[in-house]
Every structure is written in C-alpha cells, then in structure tokens.
Queue: 3 jobs
Job 1
Amino acid sequence: MAGTQYREAVVDLLGALAYGELTAFERLADDAAFAPTIADKAALAAMAVSEYQHFARLRDRLVELGASPEVAMEPFVQALEAFHERTAPADWLEGLVKAYVGDGIAEDFYREVSAYLDDSTRELVLAVLEDTGHSAFAVERVRAAIEEDPRLAGRLALWGRRLVGEALSQAQRVAAERDALSSLLVGGTERPGADLAEVGRMFARLTDNHILRMAVMGLSA
Amino acid sequence: MAGTQYREAVVDLLGALAYGELTAFERLADDAAFAPTIADKAALAAMAVSEYQHFARLRDRLVELGASPEVAMEPFVQALEAFHERTAPADWLEGLVKAYVGDGIAEDFYREVSAYLDDSTRELVLAVLEDTGHSAFAVERVRAAIEEDPRLAGRLALWGRRLVGEALSQAQRVAAERDALSSLLVGGTERPGADLAEVGRMFARLTDNHILRMAVMGLSA
C-alpha cells in the first residue's frame, strides 16, 4: 500500500466503518427490546451478531495494518454517538426505518468510496457491507404496519427526513475534521481522487437511492 | 426420549434456557453502552455474540424435537423480563456484577438439573453453559474498581444480595407454574427425581457457590 497519506486514509476509513458496525450492533440489540414477538427479537439479535462479525473483521484488518483499532475508531466515536443520540427511535417501527435508511446511506457511501481503494481493502469493505437480511425484514414489517394503519406514513416519512439530515450533518463534521479520509474521495497530494463534478454526481446518486428506499417502504422522502 | 412428561420437561427446560440466553444477549449488549472504553465495549459485544450462539443452538434443538421455539420460550418471558426490569444496573460495575452473579447462579442451577437429563440433552445444556470468558473479565474489572475506591464494596455487596433475592423469587414463580419442569428435579409420576434432602443439598451448594463468587470479586455476600 503506497504512501503515508493513503495508509492514514485507509486506517481512518476502516476505523470509521468498524465503529459504525459496533454501534450498529448495539442499536440492533437495543431495537430487539422493542420487538413485538420473540421471533422478531431473535431475528434482530441475529442481525446484530452479523454486524459484530463485520466489526471483528475490520478490527483484525486494522491490527494487520499495524494500527491500534481503538485509536483508529476514536476520531469517529463522537460523531456516531451524537448521531445515535439525536435519532433514538421511539418505537419498533422508527427503529426499523432508521436501520434501513441509515444502513442504506452508509452502504451507498462506502461503496462509492471503495472505488478509490486498493483491491484488498475494497474487497474487505464490500464484504462487510453485505446486507445481513435486515433490509428485507425492515421493509416487510414497515409496509405491513402502514397497510394496517395508513396514518403511520406521515410520521415515519418525517422521521426518515430527520435521519438523513442528522446523518449528513455528522458526516460533514467528520469530513471537515479528517483530512486524510476526505482526501480518499477528492484526492490529495499523492494521488488523484474524484473531481468536484464527480463528488456532486455521487451525492445525487446517494440522494436518489435514499428516495428509492423510502418509496420501497411506502414512504415519501 | 421416553415419556410425554419427560419430553414436556425437556422442552420447558430448553425453552427457559433459550430465552435466558436471548435476554443475556440483550443485557450484555445494553451493558456495552456503559463501557468506559471502546475495547471494553467490543469485549462485551463479543460475549453477547456468544450468548446469541448458545441461544441459536437451543432453538435448533427445540425444532429438532418438533417443538416451536417461540411456544417453548413463551412461559418464561414474563419471569425473565420481570427479573431484568427489577434489576436494571445503574452503571457499568453493577452490570458486571449482575452478569457474573446471575450467570453463575443460572449455570450452577442448570448444571445440577443436567444430572437428571438424557445424555444428548445434557451434552447440549453443558455446552451452552460454557463460560464465554465473561467471568474473568467481570471479576478483574470489579476487583480493580474496588481496589481503587474501597467504598464501592458496600454498594455492590447490597446489589449482589438484591440480585439473588430477585432471582430466587422469579425462579419460585416459574417452579410453581411449570409442573413438568419442576418434576425434572423432584421426580414425577413417570420417573424418580431427587428426594427432598437432595434438593436441600442442591440449594446449599448453589448458595455456597454464590458466596464464593462474591468473595472472588472482593464482596461480602
């Protein structure tokens, strides 16, 4: 892996992703407490376990790279905790929408970034982004709930908008603070990245996909 | 596996154990939120994952036995949820003491009961009772905290007593309601169990082990 700045950027990226998986584990396990049935509780727990296994792979890779996983994750703790604090779901359905919308945006973002990575890092990132089956589960449950009580759609659509707003605001904070990480995307002194037009198109794709996901759940974005 | 009552008792036992593991998963994942460092958070998450894997093995066995895991777990939901509600830890150390003391008593109890099981069920029960490394972790952290601030010992000792009291009260409730399960221990119409003196000795062993565990953490029972 060439270049100090590139290595630093990869450690940042894997650290952010690792802490993201660890908080996803916690969030899903928390949501399990809201589950209306034991089977739903077990399904959420299984998804939480998958997130943990993703976390463990990222942590192992950080160790392979000679980085301390804790040090690598540390810069992203505040932003991720702030996001989760500001978007604590009030019930089972809000938790499902959050997991689906939040994971979706994070997945799209990391998939876009993976284009600028070396093969071995890209492979790992794509592997840990693999859907744990949560999406289908969340979509199915949210759609069924809205069919049963259409008034839910308004509240959940608002909730979706709030989630995206908070996610973008925390992401901007991280981008402003972590130069190495941002340079992965927009290029740095050592290597070219996407030009500004490409970054713009990337955000358009992220937004389009978000609107699509909301529609799949039966919600307006 | 001979006898309807025995099969019913085994399904009860595996159901109780399975829901116990599922709530242990949730409890450890919740405790991870209190963790003072990212490494501690990851360690708790790993233990939660082990509990989930135990749960999954028990659920699979229930399916093999032709039982619905959800139906088998249902009778124990209320008692286990009531126990956890009444003993929600206020901080990281209370969570560690609860996990160590609670898992210890549960483990001792199921180990005693396993003497009255057929080989294949006993093997499974002993396998899922295997320590997930949580004990050493909890003991080390609690001892270190008390060494640093000896005043903690009084509060945590009281907390240990409350945990045992609540655990016994919920266990009695379950025993009173689930005849098949109780008959495993004390015998039923189809097969002999322990006599009353043996049940008394079993409770003495459970109590002795609890006192020992408290002492290991540096707490009086």
Job 2
Amino acid sequence: MHKEHRATPPLTAPDEVVVFIGRIRTPWLTRADCPRNVLRAREAGGSARVEIDPVYRPGLANLSAYSHVILLYWMDEAERDLLVQRPSHADGPRGVFSIRSPARPNPIALSVARVLSLNESTGLLEVEQLDCRDNTALIDVKPYLPTIDSVPGATADR
Amino acid sequence: MHKEHRATPPLTAPDEVVVFIGRIRTPWLTRADCPRNVLRAREAGGSARVEIDPVYRPGLANLSAYSHVILLYWMDEAERDLLVQRPSHADGPRGVFSIRSPARPNPIALSVARVLSLNESTGLLEVEQLDCRDNTALIDVKPYLPTIDSVPGATADR
C-alpha cells in the first residue's frame, strides 16, 4: 500500500450520538500550536484543566481514590475518512488503526494522565499536560486500573 | 451521597455522531450472560473475534507490529443518565467516572487486549477474551503504546 487511502463512499452515516460532558483547557489555542504528541506536551510543562459541565459533576464522586485517569475526547477538526495516512514520524504510509492520529473514523483521542487535583463541586480536574487544542470536547473520564490497563511488556513498532 | 443519581434533565442532546466500524463476536449472547469484567472473561477462556467492516479494512495495515490493541466499543443497551451507581463489587454508591460501568453518559467501553491473530484482507482480528455481549459494535482500534499507556504503579481503589 503505497499511498494514502480514503474510504469510499464517504463515511457520513450516523450510527449513534455522543454527548460532550466538558472541555479540556490547554495552552494550545489552535491545532497548529499543538505538540506532536503527549510526551512532547509534558516536556512543555504545565498542566491541563478538565472542566466537567455542572450536570455531570455528581459522576466525579470517588474518583479521588485513583492516581491516574483515562480521558476520551473528541477531535472535532480531524478528518474521518483517511484510512491510510503518512504520519510525519513514520517512514511510509500507516493504517489508521496502527497509529494514534486524531484523524480516524471516530475522532476519539485517548490519553492516560496523572491526576494533579480534583474538585468535585467545581468540576475541575487538573491533570498532567495534554496535547490537544484548548477547548477540546471531553466525552469520558475513566479510572485507570493497572491490573487491566497496564501492559509494560507490550511490543510496539516505534 | 447516599443513593443513585440521575442527571436532570435527561441527557438526550446529540452533539456528534459515532460510526460503527465492525462488530465484536464473543460467546456471551445476552447482557445477562456476560462475565462481570474482563478478568473473569479471560478466566472463562477462548478468544474474541473482532470483525472489521470491509470499507475500514485498509486501516488495519501495519497493526501486526503491535502485540496489544486498545478497543473502544459501544454498549448500546446501557443507560446513559446514571451518574452515581451502586456497583455489585462495591460497598456503596460510586460516581460513574470512578468506575468502568458500561452505563455512562457516552456508553463507550475500553479494553486493552493481546492480539492473537490478524488478517488484514478478511478484516478479522482475534484477541484475548472480552466481556461484552456478542455483536457489540466496535468504534475504534488503537495500537497500545506502553510508553504512554502503561502505568504499572498507578494506584486504584480496589
């Protein structure tokens, strides 16, 4: 497979809806400002502020028992039909399911992040720095469970 | 917080759409048959078969370089407005963002799974056993990257 590949026909059929439960505030005001990945974002320093909308704040109860969370967020500027891409970090084309590009059939990004502070009543969750644009829509917060989520010996092609 | 809590008003406002990119085939034919969690599912043995729809199969290129994947799937039978729940494994109510219940504002489940086999042309990805119902809709496959996804020392309240 030697070039990028777009799905045919365009992937526009809606199947289900996601709701936005809050916003992620970062120092990166536009997509062009964003660090290339989350490791670069952490090197830049600072922290990201996750703002949970009022209606969803009761769901933060008990989260303080966890050191890390999994955040799912919606990359609203990403293309959704690019199934084979040429990432800048790679030496050739890559299938979308083998990379973490925000451009994917469902533009859902996933980051594991250390929790720095949590205020259940104001809905503010401060985490280590993220690589997404300021005001990125949040769709889920999950507790990170090392027994099922951590695989230190997993092999990866980079 | 001493009882379950539902969001008010009902969370029905659509924000964005997700598309289904395939199905997960498991031995559990109904929700009632499903193991309580993914560790129980693995104890039951066997494997889960992820079937990627034809249009999305080009996206599987290069995935064979990874030993593990992150699967996101849509729990279509789950309630979406239950922000505080009483899980059977806990001694009291829990905020939805502190548990991995499928019932959440966006009913997206996440599992890290070892890849057992992959056939890019038939779109079949066999992984270690999962705890979801047969024919659960798949919404994403991501490569598992231990440098950012593995936190063996994360602390968890259970």
Job 3
Amino acid sequence: MSSDLAQLVTGLAQRARAASLALATASTEAKNAALRRLADLIDRSHPALLAANAQDLASPEAAALTAAARDRLTLNAARLLHLAESVREVAALPDPVGDVLEETTRPNGLHIRKLRVPIGVIGIIYEARPNVTIDCAVLCLKSGNACILRGGKECFQTNAALVQLIQQALTGGLPADAVQLVPTTDRAALLTLLKLDTLIHCVIPRGGESLIRFVAENSTIPVIKHYKGVCFVYVDAAADLAMAERLAVNAKASRPSACNAAEQLLVHRAVAAQFLPAVGRALVAQKVQLRCDAASAALLASAQVPHTAATPADYTTEFLDYVLAVRVVDSLDAAIATINRDSSNHSDAIVTADAVAARRFLAEVDSATVYWNASTRFTDGFEFGYGAEIGISTDRLHARGPMGLRELCTHKFVIEGTGQVRG
Amino acid sequence: MSSDLAQLVTGLAQRARAASLALATASTEAKNAALRRLADLIDRSHPALLAANAQDLASPEAAALTAAARDRLTLNAARLLHLAESVREVAALPDPVGDVLEETTRPNGLHIRKLRVPIGVIGIIYEARPNVTIDCAVLCLKSGNACILRGGKECFQTNAALVQLIQQALTGGLPADAVQLVPTTDRAALLTLLKLDTLIHCVIPRGGESLIRFVAENSTIPVIKHYKGVCFVYVDAAADLAMAERLAVNAKASRPSACNAAEQLLVHRAVAAQFLPAVGRALVAQKVQLRCDAASAALLASAQVPHTAATPADYTTEFLDYVLAVRVVDSLDAAIATINRDSSNHSDAIVTADAVAARRFLAEVDSATVYWNASTRFTDGFEFGYGAEIGISTDRLHARGPMGLRELCTHKFVIEGTGQVRG
C-alpha cells in the first residue's frame, strides 16, 4: 500500500487515541446532551441523509448486493425516525463509567477500588448497514470510548453523512474526533488499521462469518467476535410436549435470520414417536424444512410429514433460514455430548419437567447461554434488560453472550494510600 | 512441519478439550484433594525431580543461559518445599467457579443468572522456569480449566517430571488430560498450537516481551498479554517530600526486576530544587543510576549528585535494573500528558497532599493501576488480596492488572423459564 494511505490511517488512530483520553472523563450529562443533539440532527436532516443514501443505492457496488442486503442499506423516513429514537433511548440509559466494581481496604491501609472505565479506542468493522454506524457510534460514545468506523463500501456516502451529523453533535467540550469514519474503503487501509495495536484497544467486527474471520486473522488488536449461532433445542423424555412444541416452533420460526434461532432439534427416543409428528406438522405449517436422521425420518414418514434426509454437514450448520435439522437421541448424556460437539456454544435449550435432568443440562452444556423451558430466541441484550446491545459475543474472554454498554468498558484500580511502601 | 507433529499437537488439544468439559463440573473438594495430593507427591519426589533438573542443567541448551536464567531453572530442596507449600495455599483458596455474578427475574418471568465458569482450555507458553509449570497448572486446575503447558526447551526434563506428578495426582474422577505438556520443544509445534482456536480458548504467554509478541502475532486464539511496566512516580508541587522520597526509593529499588518497579520519576518544577538533591542521594545510595533531562541534571550537578544525561529512549524504557530516568515537569497537566504518552499504562503514582490534584491524576491517567501516595510496587495479586496471581495483564479486555483465579474464569447465562416464547 502507499505510505500516504498508511499515514492517513495512522493519523486517524492517533486522533482517536487523543480523543479517547478526553472522552474518558467526560460527564454523563455532556455525553447525553450530545446524543440528544444527534437525535435532533437526524430528525432535521432527512433530505440530506436520504440523498446520500440514494447516491449509495445508485452506485455500481450497491447493484451487486442481494435484495436482503440492499434492503438493509436502504434508509427511509420511518427508519430515520426509528434511528433517532434509538439514540434517545441510549441517552436515557445509565452511564456505565465510574461504577465501583470492588472496594477493599488492605491490612496495610491501602484503599483499593476497582472502577469501571472506558476501554479507550474501539474499531468497528461492518457491512453496508447505516443503522450499525449510528448504533455503534452511540454505544461507544455513551460508554466513553472513541471509535473508528469502517463500514461496507456500498454505504460510504450514507456513512459519511451520518458521521458528519455525529461530529456536529459533539460540542460542549466533547472531542469531534471521538467518532471517525475511515475515509477510504481500500482494503489495504483496513489491514493497516488492524495492526495499530498501540493506538486501538479493541476491534469488533459485525457481519458474516467470513468478515469476522478476516478481521480475527489479520488483527494484532484484541478482537471480540460475534460468530454464528448453531443453537439446539433438546426435548427430553420428561418434557411437557405441548410446551416443547411451542418452544421449538418459536425458537426456529419466529425469526430464522437471527443468530439465536434454533437450527437443530434433538428428541429423546422415549417421546420421539409421540412428539415428532406433532411438532413436524407445526413446523411445516410455518414453512420449515425438516432435515432428518434415519430415526426421525422414519417417524415423520409414517405420519406423512414432509421431510428430507440430513447430510452430516446439516448437523453443524447455521441455516439462518426456514430449515431445521432433526435427530433422535437415546439419552440426556447423548444430548449433552451432541450439543457440546456440534453446537457453536451460543444458546442451547432443554425442555423437560425433570429438574435433575435440567440441572445437569444447564451445568454440563458448555454454551454462553443455556435455557430450561424457554426459547433460545431470548439471547439478546434487550431481553436481558441491558437496554442496548452491540452484539452477542461468541468469545469467552471479556464478553460472552449479549454485549451491552458495560461490556464496552474495562476497569482500572484506583489505590489511595498514606505513604505505604512495600517491604 | 510434518503432519505427524501437527497430528500430535491437535490430538493433545482434543484431549484437553474433552478433559475441560469434565473438569468444569468437578467438585471443589475433588480439585482441592488433587492439589493436596500433588503437594505431597512433590514432597516425596525430591530425588527424581532434582535428577531431572540436573539433566536439564547439564544440557547444552542450559549452558547457553545467562546466570540469572540458569538460577531460575535450578531446583533445590528449599525451592521444592516452597513449591509444595504454594500448591497447598492454592488448595486453601475459595473456588471461583459457580459464583453468581448477576441474578434477575425479567418481567416475562425468565430467571436469569450469570454464573462464573471456567474458560475451558488454556495454553501457557513460558520460558525455562519450573515454578511456572506448577503455578500455572495449579491455578488452572483450581479454576476448572484444562491447560496445555509449553515451557522453555532448557527445562524439558524437569517439566516432564513435574507434569508426571500432576497427572498422578489427578485421580478421584479428575481427567489426567487436564494438564498436559507439549511433548516437543519444536517451534513448529507451537505455531500449530496457536492456530487451534476451536479447541483452545485462551493463550497466556509468560516471559519477556519478545516471547509475548511472538505469541500475540502468531495466535488466532485470544491472548492475554503481560507486557512491560514502564511505571512512573510523579512528585507534585504539593507533595510531602519526605514521603515522596520514601516512595520513589521503594518504587525503584525494592525490586528493580519487577514489572511494577518505577522506571521514571517526574518532579514538579516548584519542588524540584528542594526534592531532587535529597532523593538523588538516597537513590544513589541504593546504587541507582540517574538518567536526567537538562533541568534535573542541573539541579543534581549543583548538589554534586552523580547522574548522566538521558537519551530520548530512556523515557520509555523498562530498565528492570538499578536505573531511573528523571524529568522536571511544569504542571500537573504536563505530568498527566507525559505519563499518558510515555508510560506502558501499567502502574503510575502521584505523591501529593493536594486532593484535587490527586483526583485529577487518578481519573485522567489511563493506566491499569493508579496510586495516590503509595508505591507502584503494590501492583500484585497477593498485595490485592487475590491469594494467587497468574500474572499482571497489560491488556484492557477480560483482565487488566493482577490476574487471580477469578480472571481465569468466564461466565455463562443460565436461564430458567416456564415455557416462555419470544413474541
């Protein structure tokens, strides 16, 4: 890459780092006022934002997008109103910065407080989705972090217009460099960015698995990953089968494109003959395709429920669609072992009236969120009461599961003494 | 590398992963009993351990070590007694696994608990230090994690003997594969290991900066880094100068090889003429070399305190030795800006009687641990009351500052419902 481009990206990161130091000690009121100004600016700027968006939609890059991706890129008045409203909601949330996480006085009199503080500079790498630009910028601002946004090239004009509004809103002592857009969609610029580990403290890629893997493999900055959800519903021998049917249908069909949607159904052999025809009919009525192992296929066939044979790959696939893989298992042990082998450790559920079986499942299934008698679809920052969500981490370090404002923070130890020295 | 070697390392990681699932739900009593057995086995195995260590010490690899590194590799009866005692101390610590971190019941009746659980499989990459083998294995075991140890080649026989004892101690239902040693010191095996991100969940390198950088740059597994400490002591205009002298001498000279030792002294211009000659004499009496900017050099020269001129590199160097860089600053603002630019964000202290200045310093210095009127040397898991320490993280994600048993854990969300589905 040209050294000009490297200099451009490095300069941007240096400004972000300087801004992060100022933002870290900004008052809650200053941050909230900026967010409310941003919401008002969005409300007043529909024409400019829609014009920028129209420019993006008319570009050759956007022409290559799928219909679904094009829809996600598209802004309209209703979506802009919703965007401004979401900014006001974040302004109304409690500020995570400054919370006392631990406090102790040591025998030598040292007073130690562990305080929640912003991480510093966060890089967000994402696809052509203008709402992600606002969501991420706003959550970073509220949590006192500077951010560097690098969105999809198909959304460049829209993002530039949105970031201009954000920077306009950053008055009242807040540094304008707190939110910056990488001013090029050149991939070499991204590769440079991902090596600036002395200036950027965390990278969050948001998008498909290949984008996340690209970032993880090329970054020397710690990455918080939001990989796929290959989520399981296991219907135990002691399940309330009416409840199991409701949960399975909800987990699969209420929003198949979500990472917390079920992709896999396991049914205990003891209830398979009774349960599978009923749940199969209910799922098919929701347009769900069933991909079955031999045992479940035989039961569905004799009940004349449409299905196909699963391939081995189906058992570990995130379909994100109206498709469900179905297997019969012989025991709770087999269910737990199957899930620990084939799931993505995102969200897995047991349906059972047997508390002993449930407790074993909850303890032994090694996933970020485990459910007893509830739909996997609840894995979500809003459903958890976090008020906001920057994603659902599939990592185990720092954040695991839904990430809200607190997960955009780290901590520092503040120690007050009276002249103590170490012996 | 040969595919045999790749298979060997992958097989080891697969066994570690299987062991981690069993270990995650092991009882506290089973883990503690294994640790106590290990301590007894160490006590009973001095001849075998010392023989293995003698073999390492006689190797050509060990002949190339510095005297200090050779000393760290060397075992003797006193060190083995101490090692066994440290294992018993970890057995006596509270088990971090299962702690309820948050608990809430949502309006829809879902009961959500955030529980502390082991991370899973942890890779430890370290130098030729047999005590690290025991320390890390024991802390991983206590926190329910399987671990894969890859120590320095100069220590291979000693490590093999120690890991054999650990595996002997892992009875009572605990999986022997919970602690494994990479059975080769081939660097290609390490490179393979660092890419096994579906089997290994976290890598902790322990050693010098080049080792840590090598691991961070070659790992696709999240790494928790323990980089250098370029720690500052800032003596404010309002400092109690007798206290400041005690703190500066302790921070620098009580153990210069520690990462929490001070490397940098900043003195406010208002007190420099009075303070520098006194602290200079005290430091020189402790054999500390002073590397000075022009202002501090002039003051020390007129007081006839030996010193040299600092180079720019000295202001960001971790000396780990009886060397201190000294500068005069014009203000609190200048001190904060200097520290935020030149320190490694590890541990930095202000000495002052001015509470307003202190609060600004504690808030605005962006370091993992900040001190008011205390020595930087207290940044340590034991001093913080953690009872154990696997290192001092210089990262911001997951762990920052001293890492104890709790920092070797992640969490899971355990959700209990009564058939809730998402609307």
